[in-house]
Amino acid sequence: MFKPLKSILFATTLLENCKPAFDFAASLAIKYQATLVLLHVIEKSVPDYVEGRIKGLFGDEYWKQIEEKQEKDAKQVLIGKQSASSMIREALENFCEVAGISNEDCGYNTREIVVSHGDAIDEIIAQSEKFNCDLIVLGARKGFLSTNSIGPTIKGVMRASKISVMVVPPAKA
Prior knowledge:
173 residues, alpha/beta, 5-stranded parallel sheet, two-stranded antiparallel ribbon, 20% strand
């Protein structure tokens, strides 16, 4: 028997290949009136020794400002200049309109936008557990010679997850 979806986690790299995966996650959230959790993980981009040197030269406060700006920029990409609620509602309404779903049937329970720091695999698993998600939706990317590619993050999430993981291929060019 199929368990209804109550909460769906959509993890994004903020790249174009994630749009079809978002559309899929949004359609499921509408169909099942599920909570939609949008997640972007900011992975450590500089080695520890570089971080240490920057902190040594400019101080911990400067490093903290850099990290805060990176998180703010990621949130702005996720929500634009709108509030999280209005951005997701607008995206879902546009999706419903394109899909031909009536206004009465086009809804969802709640939504969350999370920007976290750390290892992508660990954070995706942790956030899916925190929000008690029933499904994780990830976007595949274009690989070598334009074939779809499943990278180490998707493979790691699939290995570590105790819930279903849906991988959505990127749109055809």
